[in-house]
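Data follows
____________
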Amino acid sequence: MKARLETEMFLSARCVTAVAAVLFSLASVCPAQSYHVADHWKLGGQGGWDYLLSDDGAHRLYVTHNARVEVVDTTTGKAVGAITGLKSTHGVALNPDGKTGYISDGAGNAIVVFDRADFSLRATVAAGTNPDGILFEPTTKTVWAFNGRSKDISVMDTASNAIVATIPVPGKPEFPQADGAGAVFVNIEDKNEIVKLDAASRKAVATWPLTGCDSPSGMAIDTKKHRLFSVCDGGKMIVVDYTTGKLLGLAAIGDSPDAAGFDPKRRLAFSSNGGDGTLTIVEADKPGFPALQTVKTAKGARTMTLDAFTGRVYLVTAEFGPAPAPTADVPHPRPTVVPGSFEIIVVEP
C-alpha cells in the first residue's frame, strides 16, 4: 500500500511538473497583451472625419464628423447627441471642469466652446486660418488651436473666451500634446520637426529635427518617461526624449498613419494606419521599440483615441466610392464617402 501511494505521488508530481512546463512554454511565446476588433458601431451620416477623443471617466466619445461632432456612449455604442452648427470640424479638447469642451472648426477659422451637458454652443471665437489640432493646457487654463494654413497657434483664455496670444511656428502644425507641467509640443508636418513651447511665456523655446521621419502627423505622450511618439509617412514612429530633444529610436508601423496613442498602464504606443487599414501596437519600454502586434482594422481608419481605463482603442472609417476627377486646385482628390457607412471600430485587449 505504501509503495502504491509513493508511486501515485511520484506520478502526480510529474504531471504537475509537466503542466507547469507547458504553461511556462506558452507564456514564453504568447504576448502579454493580445488585441482584437471587438465591435463595429454604425453611426451613419455623410462626409469625412478627422480626430476623435475619449472622455474616459464619462464613458463618452467625441467624434469629429464633417460639420458636426458626434457624441457616443461607450458603454452602449449608441449616439447620445451631437454638436452642430459648425462648418468643418477637426479636433476636440475638454476642460477638466467636466462642463466645457472646445472644437477646432477648420472652415470656420474658429474655436467653438460647447456645453458638455446638453451639447449647446456657448461661444465661437475667431482663431487663425484652418485650426486643426487643439488641446487644453492645464497650468495656464488656456486652449491652444494649431492653425494649419496661417502656420501659427491661437491661445484662448478659458475664463474670458478671448484670444490672448498668437504664436508663429516655422511650418504647418499638426497634432499637439501637453505634458501637464507647462510645456506644449507640436509636430511641424512640412519641416519634419517638433517645436517645444512654454505655456507661461507663450513662446517657442526649442525646435528639434526628426531625422528619419517624413511628414509627422499624430503624436502621443508618455509623461512618466518624458517621451513623445510621432507617427510619420514611410511606416515609421519616431520616439523623442522631450526633456532634451534626443531621438531614442524608430519603430516600424503601417502605411499612412494620422494618429497615435499611448497607454500608460500597459506601457504601449499605438499608431492608426489608414493606408493599409491596420493598428500597430508598439512596446514602449523595450529596446528598439518592437511591434507587439498588428491588428487588421479597415482601410481609411487613420485616426484613433485610447480609453486608458479600459485599454480600448477606438478608430473611425467608412466605405469609399470612386474619387472625383482631379482639378488644378485638387490634383489628388480623395475618394467619395458612401453615405450612411460611417462607423467606429472598437479594438480591445
In short: The longest strand covers residues 36-42. The chain has one helix and 28 strands. The chain has two domains: 34-48+220-322+338-349, 85-209.
